[in-house]
């Protein structure tokens, strides 16, 4: 295409159709991320039709992608002057911000809002400008306006948390920090949308072409040395290009419907029509699984396995899906069929072992034979594979089986070997942390839980495990530091608030205690869960804050409502009431947590 355009350029150097051709070529090259070539093509087009501002806008996008923000700013400025669209001034503001030219960025975003006052991307840009200029109140106003117009723009939460922290509003700062994400603000930009359409259509055509390839003979190549069908690479491509939005599901279904309407006799194709359709169904099933639509995925994967029986990844996903839905016997039958084809498939051996363990757990008397078979599968998998992920999964499951048999030393060894293979393996981190905590190795357990929190920030149980381990290790300062972070990042978790409140109210280290903050947290925890422990913590917090009237009130309520409590608890409650009645906190004169419990 480029050679043809260059030939036309030699024959008719000033012809507008030639300029349009180079502009289209630039758009296609940009879609394929050939940024340097795209910029060259657009330069040729703009030399002939310099007043075509859409092309200038497109070249600004290309230059931004290349990191040339100064050049991009020139193009976006020209597009802003030449059109009344909203996108060019927003893009111009982004380029100026990247260059540190905040005053010019402010004017560009303001221009976008003059064109359309409901432009959340411009409000977000102004928020960043004002934050950079040290005006947190103005920044907060713009960030909030952006989020009110587009709540999915989670990218604003982190800078908004920072400006609220600068304003001294810790509660709002913690709330926004917990909601941070990477959701971008939409910019109505026909130029970008046209590129996205090219990318999507091209990717869909690529998927169709990949699904029609003959099977690979050696690695990923066919007998002729051409790219062959690679099941894992095929699904990876589909999920990378289409896995973020639901629309491609409809497009893949439309493609399948089109193939169904086509002539069924495809003898000249590299693979049969059924195999191609089966591969596309496999891709569709993968997308549906990514979106959590398991029931629909089940149907697509069933069809895929029927149409293309050699799709081992599809058959493994299908077996796994049955296992996730609790259909362990059916899953085991499917794993058996896969192992009949390849008895050395370590991933299938490990998955079958897990299904056997789960099936045995659902039986009243257990199933020693199933457990023994699961062990055999796992030990065999470890012999035949050097895949780190599979090794970690096998060691993790062997550790859990050892724990069930009371073999804690062997379990610990398997957990450690799982983490040697995969340092971020979540269930191994949790399992080893629990095991070490029960054994009294609290400091090491806390470190494992912290690694688990880093791997899975939303895991409140791991956060609580880290905090309790630090408390039991006697590291109260670090426990408070980590609990403050946990509460800030998971502000809706009442249990974490309750744990921090009790630490602040009853810690044996006076440096750590903070009665006022303890009261605030304890009230929030009580509102979420009005348990006896929450009432006890609230009374402790009021006493530490010096409000003994409220402390006595809540402690009496606890005693009057706690008839079912054990004797030790009632004795502790009565002792603390005595302290409050004499104007002392529950920690007065103590060098240990109240009642011998961790705070």
Supply database-style keywords.
mainly alpha, about 75% helix, about 600 residues, Serine Threonine Protein Phosphatase 5, Tetratricopeptide repeat, disordered C terminus, 31 helices
Task: Describe the structure in your own words.
- There is one protein chain.
- By secondary structure, the chain is mainly α.
- It has three domains: 2-178, Serine Threonine Protein Phosphatase 5, Tetratricopeptide repeat, CATH 1.25.40.10; 195-402, Alpha Horseshoe (Serine Threonine Protein Phosphatase 5, Tetratricopeptide repeat), CATH 1.25.40; 502-599, Serine Threonine Protein Phosphatase 5, Tetratricopeptide repeat, CATH 1.25.40.
- 73% of the residues lie in helices and 0% in strands.
- The chain has 31 helices and no strands.
- The chain has helices spanning 2-11, 16-31, 35-48, 53-66, 69-82, 87-99, 102-115, 120-132, 136-149, 157-166, 170-178, 190-211, 231-242, 247-261, 273-290, 294-307, 312-324, 328-341, 346-361, 368-384, 388-404, 408-421, 426-439, 442-455, 460-472, 476-489, 494-506, 515-528, 532-544, 548-561, 567-581.
- It is flat.
- The model is unreliable at 590-597 (pLDDT under 50).
Write a concise synopsis of the structure shown.
The protein is mainly alpha-helical. The chain is built from 31 helices and no strands.
Instruction: Determine the N-to-C terminus distance.
Output: 73 Å
Under the CATH scheme, the architecture of the largest domain is Alpha Horseshoe
The percentage helix is over 70%
Low-pLDDT ranges:
590-597
Give the DSSP E fraction (strand runs of 2 or more residues).
under 5%
How many beta-strand segments? 0
Radius of gyration: 31 Å
**What is the CATH superfamily label of the largest domain?**
Tetratricopeptide repeat domain
The DSSP helix count reads 31
């Amino acid at each position: 295409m480029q050679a043809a355009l260059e030939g036309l350029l030699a024959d008719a150097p000033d012809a507008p159709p030639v300029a349009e051709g180079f502009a289209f070529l630039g758009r296609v090259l940009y879609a394929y991320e050939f940024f340097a070539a795209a910029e060259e093509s657009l330069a040729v087009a703009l030399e002939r039709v310099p007043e075509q501002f859409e092309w200038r806008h497109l070249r600004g996008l290309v230059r931004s992608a290349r990191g040339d923000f100064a050049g991009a700013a020139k193009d976006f400025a020209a597009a802003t002057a030449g059109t009344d669209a909203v996108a060019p001034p927003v893009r111009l503001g982004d380029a100026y911000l990247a260059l540190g030219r905040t005053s010019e960025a402010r004017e560009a975003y303001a221009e976008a809002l003059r064109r359309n006052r409901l432009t959340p991307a411009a409000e977000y840009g102004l928020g960043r400008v004002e934050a950079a200029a040290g005006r947190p109140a103005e920044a907060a106003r713009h960030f909030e306006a952006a989020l009110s117009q587009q709540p999915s723009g989670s990218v604003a939460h982190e800078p908004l948390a920072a400006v609220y922290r600068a304003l001294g509003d810790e509660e709002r700062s913690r709330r926004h920090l917990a909601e941070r994400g990477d959701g971008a603000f939409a910019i109505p930009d026909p130029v970008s949308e046209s590129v996205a359409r090219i990318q999507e259509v091209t990717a869909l055509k690529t998927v169709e072409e990949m699904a029609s390839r003959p099977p690979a003979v050696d690695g990923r190549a066919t007998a002729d040395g051409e790219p062959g069908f690679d099941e894992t690479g095929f699904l990876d491509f589909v999920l990378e290009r289409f896995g973020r939005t639901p629309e491609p599901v409809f497009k893949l279904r439309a493609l399948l419907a089109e193939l169904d309407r086509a002539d069924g006799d495809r003898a000249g194709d590299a693979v049969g029509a059924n195999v191609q359709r089966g591969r596309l169904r496999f891709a569709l099933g993968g997308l549906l699984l990514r979106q959590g639509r398991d029931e629909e995925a089940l149907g697509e994967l069933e069809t895929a396995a029927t149409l293309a029986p050699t799709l081992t990844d599809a058959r493994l996903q299908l077996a796994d899906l049955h296992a996730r839905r609790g259909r362990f016997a059916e899953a085991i039958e499917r794993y058996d069929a896969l192992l009949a084809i390849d008895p050395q498939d370590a991933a299938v051996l490990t998955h079958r072992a897990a299904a056997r363990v789960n099936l045995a757990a659902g039986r009243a008397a257990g199933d020693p034979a199933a457990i023994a078979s699961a062990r055999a599968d796992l030990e065999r998998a470890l012999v035949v594979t050097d895949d780190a992920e599979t090794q970690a999964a096998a060691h993790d499951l062997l550790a859990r089986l050892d724990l069930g048999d009371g073999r804690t030393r062997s379990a610990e060894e398997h957990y450690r070997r799982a983490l040697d293979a995969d340092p971020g393996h979540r269930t191994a981190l949790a399992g080893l942390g629990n095991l070490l905590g029960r054994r009294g190795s609290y400091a090491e357990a806390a470190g494992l839980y912290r690694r688990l929190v880093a791997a899975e920030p939303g895991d409140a149980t791991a956060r609580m495990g880290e905090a309790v381990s630090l408390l039991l290790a006697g590291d109260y300062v670090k426990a408070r530091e980590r609990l403050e972070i946990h509460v800030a990042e998971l502000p809706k978790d009442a249990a974490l608030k309750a744990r921090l409140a009790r630490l602040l109210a009853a810690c044996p280290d006076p440096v750590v205690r903070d009665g006022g903050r303890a009261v605030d947290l304890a009230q929030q925890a009580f509102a979420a869960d009005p348990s006896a422990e929450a009432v006890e913590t609230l009374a402790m917090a009021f006493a530490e804050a010096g409000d003994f009237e409220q402390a006595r009130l809540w402690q009496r309520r606890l005693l009057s409502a706690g008839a079912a409590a054990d004797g030790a608890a009632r004795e502790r409650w009565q002792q603390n009431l005595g302290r409050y009645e004499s104007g002392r906190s529950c920690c007065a004169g103590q060098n240990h947590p109240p009642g011998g419990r961790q705070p």
